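Sample A.
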Amino acid sequence: MTGGRTPDHSGASPLRRAHVSLSVLIGVSVLAAGGLSMAVSAPPSPLAGVGFAAGAVILLVAMTLAGRVTIALERARRRDRPPVPPLTNAPVFSRLMRLATSRTNRR
């Protein structure tokens, strides 16, 4: 028996893992932005430069990955939504069109 686990044996659905990784990446981004701010406000030194470079790289990577996860989550959300029916099949639309054409024909 698999015990209700997913085929990759991780125990979590891919959507759940994506949400968790997005939360972690946002947390890393916030911490990296804080470190970057501290490095900018520190007195000039080689250590401050290294801190700035490391904070900038970590922030850039974390934000890029968070953006990719967000795009993947949005694509999954759109794929799982039912398609929107065309407006021309709606009964209200048909009635409105009949009313509009009847009023224009009267003039």
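Sample B.
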Amino acid sequence: MNGAEYIAKILKEEGVSWLSCFPSNPMIEALAKEGIRPIAFRHERGAVMAADGYARVSDRKNIGVVGMQSQAGAENSMGGLAQANADNVPILVLPGGNPLNMLFVRPNFSAVNSWATVSRSAEFITSPDQTGNVMRRAFHRLKSSAPGPVVVELPPEVVGLDVPDAGQNYQSPREVIGVPSAGDLADAAKTLVDAKDAMIWAGGGVMSADATEELRELAELLEVPVYTSLPGKSAIDERHPLAIGSGGLTTTGPARKWLQESDCMLAVGTSLTTTPYGQRFPQEKFLIHAVNDVNEMNKDTICDIGLVGHAKYTLQLLIDQVKGLIGEGGRETGAKDRIKAEKDAWWESWMPYLTNDSKPISPYRVIWELNQNLDKENSIVTHDAGAPRDQMAPFYTATTPHSYVGWGKTTHLGASIPLMIGAKKAMPERMCVAFMGDAAFGMSGLDIETSVRAELPITVVLLNNGIMATYPGGTPTAREQFGVTHMTGDYAQIAMGMGAEGIRVSDAAELPGAIQEAAKLNKEGKSVMLDVKTRNEDSRAPARFVEENTVN
């Protein structure tokens, strides 16, 4: 068999069931012959993002795989890789490659060289007899090392040649798991117990390690609040009395209070990377950093105790240490009462935004109605970049793991649609909802047709406000004289032209029925666009709440 055929058999052995792609790529036909379904997206970046969405909600049990052609296809894919890399999402990327004699000839694009900053590892197969070795290294990294995109570039004459029998040596690598030292665990437990006002920061690594129950148990044992990063949103049920919310650029009032005032933090399953789209905390706070990659420690924060290891087993061992100090029944710190008081006050201050009846509709009212009308335990919701992310993250209530998919150390407009197509492929029983603005639609809207064609129905809730809401006051001359941030469209009509259902909403009272109708249509196998006429909400604080749109 040739190299492409051998790789296809390896992927089938590893449980790969589909390939996200944009033709042409040598793996498309080889995988199809193995019964592995290729799904073509409308752009390579979207194909990468769909593999990302699939991997995010699969928790390393299933790997997202994406293929594209060499040169232009690989060039178009950079944004998708950057996003998966920034959020530590393990995907296997199989770009077509240049012929070996053209690898270093300008201006040929080399994925291995050019993608070094947006992948965990990248190599090309140099000869047919190395195919098994390269693929073994790739799957070892996907299963056991710090997660992120793993690239295997496919030179055409290499994957087109037969693999000698001696080269057919692939053996599926077992997951390798590490845990922190007993001494570091003991020190961390004692510090958490002795702290006056400790808290936990949970990242996406908690879910990918299947450690959400351990997170809850440790929080209840210590009775300390739990904050989640944007990728970690839904690692704890946000209705839990110890949950203080999630955040990116924006967050909840209770979260901001504990991030600022707590004296000790256990950060687990998170890189704590400093980003404009994440929260920060004072450097003098005592930090226990539990993460599976030692290189994430002492990067942007000062690590007082480092716990390098798998999040699930780290938390289990930490729970045992804490029980040894305070007993099996845990303790009472009064944190639940303090959190409730802070939550109640914060929600009360925002209710005028969330229940506002203005016309055009407030985007916060849209979020409120999604909260009230979605079956959250059986849904997956994501934001898009910009204002939808900043508005959604603090207010949408995540319940079960992956009921919300947060993302955003690098913030690519339009990611929400392909992310939800990938998530739907992983969890077909769930309703998958993309919450986006009209500017984001221009980046990926045609992949609504992909969801229709692939029979992976999703719902898009589009805030149709006619302007880029994230930048309302930054370019006043360009906006007023040249309309630089203005854009219009009948997005329901566009969606219908691609085979989806389009529902227009212009009054807040119509939202509950529209959301429920979308859920019904999704169950019938139909993708839906909710085109919601909203106002441009240029305020982010209730003290500055205004009835009329101050920009348009």
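B remarks: The two ends are 63 Å apart (CA to CA). The chain has three domains: 3-167, 182-340, 355-544.
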